[in-house]
Structures are given as structure tokens and as C-alpha cells.
Amino acid sequence: MARQMANFSRLMDSMVFTTFLMFVSGFGLFLMGELYKNVVQQETKKLSQIAMVVVRLFPFPDKKYEFNLTHVVVFSTLIGMLCMLHHPAQDVIQHELEKTQKNKKKREEAEKKREEAEKRRKKEESKEHK
């Protein structure tokens, strides 16, 4: 049986997520631009060394930060891919949860056996007293 690549019942969810992601990435790029403008253009005299480092890290023409829809789409794709990344900590948490559940099950089984053994012992004692 062929494996389905797209689940069309989740189409609305993916449209909402994509729209939200586009707004988040656009807002993030806008905030980065404001930070760049503040450090490089307005506060250059106060933060001269930091401004030089920022200018060398982000070499924009005429020291003006600009972004367009292409930048927003690429940044939102990057954010989406990072959201889908499987972090090793998730495996550790799942392993610990399985381990605690296994220990709990063992304790419950041991307690159940102890109770059954106690019941059998009490029955035997009551038979001996009769």
C-alpha cells in the first residue's frame, strides 16, 4: 500500500500555522531591523565598538537594514524546520517515563503477590486453629 504524503484533513491546521509563522518571522525580522538601526545608526557614539562588531557581522549596503517577502519566507521556513527538529532530550524524558512506569508496575505486582501470600498464610493459620 502506498504511503500518503499529505494528510488533507489537516490542511486547515497547516494554513493557520503557516500564516502565524509568517507573521512571527516578519515581526522577528522587523525587531532585528529596529535593533540594528538603534545600535548602528542612532547609538554609534555611545556604543562605538559594539556598533563596529554589528556592522562587520551584518554588512548591509549604506548601513540600512532592509528585508522583503523573500526574507520573511526563508526565515519562516527556517523556523518551521527548527520546530520539527527532534531533540535528544525528548528521548531522555520518554525513557525516564517508561522506566518509572515499569518500576511502578513491578512494585504493584510485588505488592499483589505479597497480599496473596498473606491471604494464603492467614487461611492456613485459620485451618490449623480449627
Structural account:
With 130 residues, the chain is mainly alpha-helical. It has two domains: 85 residues, no CATH class; 44 residues. Helices cover 76% and strands 0% of the residues. It is built from four helices and no strands. Keywords: Membrane, Transmembrane, Transmembrane helix.
Provide the fold topology.
Layout: H1 11-42, H2 48-57, H3 69-83, H4 88-129
Transmembrane segments: 12-32
Region (Disordered): 96-130
Keywords: Membrane, Transmembrane, Transmembrane helix
Features:
mainly alpha, 76% helix, 2 domains, membrane, 4 helices, 0% strand, transmembrane helix, transmembrane
Kindly summarize this structure in a few lines.
The chain is mainly alpha-helical and 130 residues long. It has helices at 11-42, 48-57, 69-83, 88-129. The protein folds into two domains: 1-85, no CATH class; 87-130.
Could you estimate the helical fraction of the residues in percent?
over 70%
**How many strands, which pairing sense, and closed or not: the largest β-sheet?**
none
- Number of E-state strands: 0
- Cα-atom radius of gyration: 31 Å
* Mean pLDDT score: 87
Encode the helix/strand succession as letters.
Answer: HHHH
Shape: elongated
Helical region count? Answer: 4
Distance between the termini: 69 Å
Query: What is the count of structural domains?
Result: 2
Keywords: Membrane, Transmembrane, Transmembrane helix
